[in-house]
Specification:
Number of strands of chain A: 10
Oligomer: heterodimer
Distance between the termini of chain A: 36 Å
Distance between the termini of chain B: 43 Å
Number of helices of chain A: 11
Radius of gyration of chain B: 19 Å
Order of helices and strands of chain A: EEEHEEHEHHHHHEHEHEEHH
Radius of gyration of chain A: 17 Å
Strand order of the largest sheet of chain A: 6-7-8-3-9-10
Helix content of chain A: 40-55%
Largest interface: A-B, 27 and 18 residues
Largest sheet of chain B: 2 strands, antiparallel
Number of strands of chain B: 2
Shape of chain A: globular
Helix content of chain B: over 70%
Chain lengths: 235, 292
């Protein structure tokens, strides 16, 4: 469904991604893991259009999207739940969700999707008149995910969904991401909390210094000595 | 001094302050969405005033009616200016963007100022309608009809803008872009289009203020800078990007300036600037802005 074809991305003179290539198939959860500054966020920003590669391509359902504007990519079904949530803090919870449904497709089934989101996160319905900036960290992450669903995407990208959350809340969030996947949603996520990501994802890629250095089945990765040593802190 | 003189100055201050607010709201809207400072905002206000003046002189169109065509003309001019001059800046880094927008704004303000002198001479002009002298008295205070309606009109425009920004999808998109443009783009909002409409709306609001100025006060080619400065002071008083607060801060500045003429005479502008510095020093986020 999504094919990243040897993309190279730079910030000015500083190259951040080198020939990064991977694939995400329909209905699967794929994790991209790696240390801080390895290029995980850069990769997701490039897929969603916030950054443009200077070489390489991105195919989504067979369409080349590397040069497409950000809002057009949302229209064809790519939705990013950004790093640090990226909410509109001064606007209410409901307004944040409504903005998630800004595209024509999102607007046409806004009420229905809204009920689904409230079903996943009942607390959001209770808080709907409250300003997003006044929510707790966990609630903000829920809102960011709910908002990401409102455009009715085909591919949902998550940038560190466990960011700033307690282990318990991270678990809750990952359970919901699993539920979303069970409805048939394709998911690509990046995560520093490697264990929790590998437990949910079917396949994973490891990125270090802007290059993909390892890939494979999540179960195999959990047993890989290098991964265990570098990311899981176990022998 | 008796209280009546005081109250009358306060009232006149509120009338003119409503216009400061209206001028500032447009500037604030544009700054919020695009993070660009349009220092030619006052010149757009001047153009709006002249549009109304010529509609009245040539076609005898009542100024309160010509508000609409004047606003529409400035909407189109705003779209053109955005497309031609400001849009290429949108992709720049935030700091370079604001610097370049200042340069373009100063250039534009010189061009409009001199163009206005060329076309319409440097004379002061004002629209004098049949009802110019009308008014009423309440509690011993004089309410000139035109200035009073100017304030009412300014309030109506602000309320309408508020409804637009809070109730319509496009208005919400404008607010979302103001808060976080990257997230807004990730919602599927077309940032380029939103910026263009916001800029054009800013010009429209300036035109409306200009129309009211041309009836209740006077217009001349050099008025732009003066109004840009007032609008800037008000925007900083209210807090950058705070649209609702800008109107209240405008009324406040007008009232303070007007009342202070009773004490310091022609130095009333200084009082406004001192207020500006005090707010910058003590509450840099503005009177109605949130800290951090």
């Amino acid at each position: 469904m999504l094919a990243i074809e040897k993309i190279n991305v730079s910030y000015g003179d500083l190259q951040a991604l080198w020939n990064v290539a991977f694939e995400v198939n329909q209905k699967e959860v794929v994790a991209l893991i790696g240390p801080n500054g390895a290029g995980k966020t850069t990769t997701l920003k490039t897929v969603s259009g916030l950054l443009k590669p200077f070489a390489g391509g991105i195919k989504f359902e067979g369409i080349e999207v590397a040069e497409m504007q950000i809002h057009k990519r949302v229209e064809i079904g790519i939705s990013l739940v950004p790093e640090g949530r990226g909410l509109f803090p001064g606007m209410t919870v409901l307004e944040n969700l409504e903005l998630g449904a800004f595209t024509a497709k999102g607007r046409s089934c806004k009420e229905e999707t809204l009920q689904q989101v409230y079903g996943l996160f009942p607390i959001l319905e209770k808080r709907k008149k409250q300003a997003a900036g006044t929510l707790s960290g966990g609630e903000q992450q829920m809102l960011a995910i709910g908002r990401g669903l409102m455009s009715r995407p085909k591919l949902l990208l998550f940038d560190e969904p466990s960011w700033g959350l307690s282990p318990l809340l991270s678990k809750v969030i990952y359970e919901v991401i699993g539920q979303i996947n069970n409805t048939g949603m394709t998911i690509l996520l990046i995560e520093q909390n490697v264990r929790i990501a590998l437990e949910l994802a079917k396949r994973a890629y490891v990125i270090e210094n802007g290059r993909i250095v390892n890939q494979g089945d999540s179960q195999r990765m959990l047993n890989d000595p290098h991964i265990r040593e570098a990311y899981l802190g176990t022998e | 001094m008796n209280w009546q003189v005081f109250a009358q100055s306060l009232l006149f201050g509120i009338f003119v302050g409503g216009l400061y607010g209206l001028a500032a709201v447009g500037l604030s809207l544009v700054f919020g969405v695009m993070k660009m400072l349009n220092v030619a905002h006052g010149e757009l206000l001047m153009l709006g005033g002249y549009a109304t003046f010529w509609f009245f002189s040539l076609y005898h169109l009542d100024p309160f009616l010509s508000l609409l065509p004047s606003a529409f003309i400035l909407f189109l001019i705003g779209m053109g200016l955005y497309k031609g001059l400001f849009s290429p800046l949108a992709k720049l880094h935030e700091e370079t963007k604001i610097k370049n927008s200042l340069l373009i704004g100063f250039g534009l303000s010189l061009i409009f100022h001199n163009l206005a002198i060329r076309l319409w001479t440097a004379d002061e002009r004002s629209v004098s309608v049949l009802y110019s002298g009308w008014g009423f008295s309440l509690f011993g205070l004089r309410f000139p009809f035109i200035r009073f309606s100017g304030l009412v009109l300014a309030i109506i425009v602000i309320l309408a803008l508020h409804q637009f920004l809070t109730k319509t999808y496009f208005g919400k998109a404008i607010r979302a872009t103001t808060e976080n443009w990257e997230s807004a783009a990730l919602m599927g909002i077309n940032i380029e289009k939103t910026s263009m409409i916001s800029f054009a709306l800013g010009a429209t609001l300036a035109a409306m203020a200009g129309t009211i100025v041309s009836v209740g006060y006077a217009i001349h080619p050099a008025m732009g800078l003066e109004w840009t400065l007032k609008a800037l002071i008000v925007v900083v008083l209210a807090g950058l990007g705070n649209i609702g607060g800008a109107f209240v801060a405008g009324v406040l500045l007008g009232a303070v300036e007007s009342v202070s003429t009773l004490f310091v005479g022609p130095y009333m502008e200084v009082v406004g600037l001192v207020l500006f510095l005090l707010v910058l020093e003590l509450r840099p986020q503005g009177l109605f802005g949130k800290a951090g």
